[in-house]
Amino acid sequence: MARAPKSPAPEGFDPSTDVVETPDPNPVSAYLAETSEGSAFVPVDGQTSREGTPATRVAATSAYLLTHDPRRWSLMAGRVVPNFKKLKLIAGVNGVDEIRRNDGSRVLRAATARALAEERGETVIPLDAIPDRHRHRPDLHQGPPGTAPSYLWRPRGRPDVTLLIYERCYPGAETTDCDVKHYLEFIDHLLSTGIVKPCPAHTLRRMRESAVERMGRLEDLAARFPSYAPDVARTRGEIETIDAELAKREHPRAPELGGAYQPEAL
Amino acid sequence: MAAPTGMIGLSAMGDETIAAEVAGHYLLLLADRNALPNHPALHYGGNITGIGSNAIKVPFVGLMGYDEMATGTEGDPVANTGLTDNSVTVTVVQKSIVREPSDIGKIIDKQGFLRRETLALDAVVTGSNVMRSMVANVTDNFSSVIGTSGVNMSFANMLDAVTTLEIAKVEGPYMGILHPVQWGDVRKDIATASGGAIQFYPGSQSLLDAMKGLGYKGSFIGVDWFTTTDVPTAAAGADRAGGVFGRGGVVWADGDVFAEDPINQAVVAGKVLFERQRVVAGGTTKYAAHRYIGVSIGVDAFGVTIATDA
Q1: Which residues in A lie closer than 8 A to residue B294 (C-beta atoms)?
Q2: Dihedral through CA A124, CA A128, CA A130, CA A133, nearest 10?
Q3: What's this model's pTM, rounded to 2 decimal places?
Q4: Core-most of A209, A215, A236, B213, by most CB within 10 Å?
Q5: Contact present, B258 and B267 (Cβ < 8 Å)
Q6: For B297, which residue in chain A has the nearest alpha carbon?
Q7: Using CA atoms, how far apart are residues A205 and A196, in angstroms rounded to an integer?
Q8: Is A206 exposed, middle or buried (0-12, 13-18, 19+ CB in 10 A)?
Q9: Which residues numbered 99-118 in A keep a CB inside 8 Å of some CB on B?
Q10: What sign has the CA pseudo-torsion A39, A42, A43, A47?
Q11: What letter does residue B292 receive in the DSSP assignment?
Q12: Given a cut of 70, is residue A30 above it in pLDDT?
């Protein structure tokens, strides 16, 4: 916009034809007083462009509660860990019902599902049963102090996805992976607080027998297919892990119930 | 060679051409569209129509050889043998999907996927999918587990699953539901490293030559296998947990639907109520499909979960 020069016009300056641009130190629109207030807006397309972060593409998953079945155990990263079940909060599955309140909101009722699970001998893991050092950590999707902790989280932009806080997903990717370090800390917390009892010795023995049998088969395969050698090494490590866990038990061969019985002789 | 002067080319026909024309056909986006077969292992618990509750209890009783005879003594009465029983409760709920095309959308619809008949077919497929999804979300919850976390599924896992069920006295036929990752791991194991009887088993060749994609894979080692991406994860995402079960391992129930208004309602595939509602003010038409169904684990010992690397 042409403005009149503030200093005397230079020699030969013709205001009818010459335009002098002087930088305004305080660039404010002349229409500011007339326009409505607002803020910058980036449309959805702009948000998902190269400058934006796309939402994760993992498959939709329902909310759930973890339950522990004392008969289900597995091995992970050199540890014997419980193989949790999921009490899925899906209406119609395993006794979960859904009702509609007078205000139109829909509520899931999981009491029957929880009762059926406990009847089967399972322990429902409370949602807030995470270690103290995991609470209020943004990297584990926890809120600031004052907010309720939970072992579940939902990725931004995906209200149809519910994951464990130790389950990582990535923008634009369809896969997830496990945060093994923190997941094992979570397991340790459940064991130390008694929510989950340690793996029974008889279960460990059965796991060992299965691992030894698998070891033999893998060694036979590795003799013909060298690519199976890492599997042999891994299974050997699993057997060592189970042996270490068995060694912690005081009386690994003591029966858990009952006493000696002498049948009557005829 | 330069274009001749005055040539009426595509670039000069801006008023006679359009940017693009929609093709006369369409392709479907990726989705799992396979329905579960009507398999004997999926035990039908009953219908809630007229029973006064949306929950149906299916009893399991210990008869027909469950108990053994006791040895009797001449003249002495034999003690009674009690009846062992159990039950599972299946809660039936409403599952729905609603589509609402606008009038102008239906007017310009070239491929016909907004037509009533197409949406009715969509209702049938979606109604079948809901049962598949619900069954896949219970088979990961059996107490018996086969497989090791983080380790690919192998043919040995399949054999172990069958053995576990036989030891538990589960009658066949068995049904197996696996994630495609699990199925692919087994297929690779059989194709590249099998020995013993399996390498000469015609089923192994059939497994490799089977039609690719999701859904029913055929019978293999006496189990009817089915793959679906609905199989959930386990161990904080490290694994996929499918399952194998016999009759009674999974129980389902449903409710009947009725078309009270034959002009705007129809029962499709026997169990899905498909209906339409005109939204006058907005110039749209709603097409809704409803199915009433519930699925639960039956007797826990009737199935085994296979949890292997995802």
Answers
A1: 92-93
A2: -170
A3: 0.78
A4: A215
A5: yes
A6: A94
A7: 19
A8: middle
A9: 112, 116
A10: negative
A11: E
A12: no
- Polymer length of chain A: 266
Residue with structure tokens 């007797």? B299
Biggest CA pair distance of chain B? 122
- Mutation target to probe the A interface, by most A beta carbons within 10 A, among B137, B179, B291, B299 is B137
Beta strands B265-268 and B272-279 are antiparallel
Give B214's pLDDT tier (boundaries 50, 70, 90).
confident
Query: pLDDT per residue over B21-52, tens digit each?
Result: 666 556 666 666 666 767 888 999 889 999 99
pLDDT at position A63, please? 92
What are A246's two structure tokens?
């068995």
Please write the tens of the pLDDT for every residue from A86-127. Answer: 999 999 999 898 888 888 888 888 998 999 899 889 999 999
Would you say B240 and B280 are in contact if contact means Cβ atoms under 8 Å apart? no
| pLDDT tens-digit series, residues B62-114 | 888 888 888 888 888 888 888 888 888 899 999 999 999 999 989 988 888 88
In this structure, which amino acid lies at residue A183? Answer: Y
Q: Do A91 and B138 touch (CB under 8 A)?
A: no
Residue of B nearest to A94 (CA): B296
The contacts of residue B30 (CB under 8 Å, 6+ apart) are none
The residue whose two tokens read 């893998």 is A218
Report DSSP state, residue A125.
Answer: P
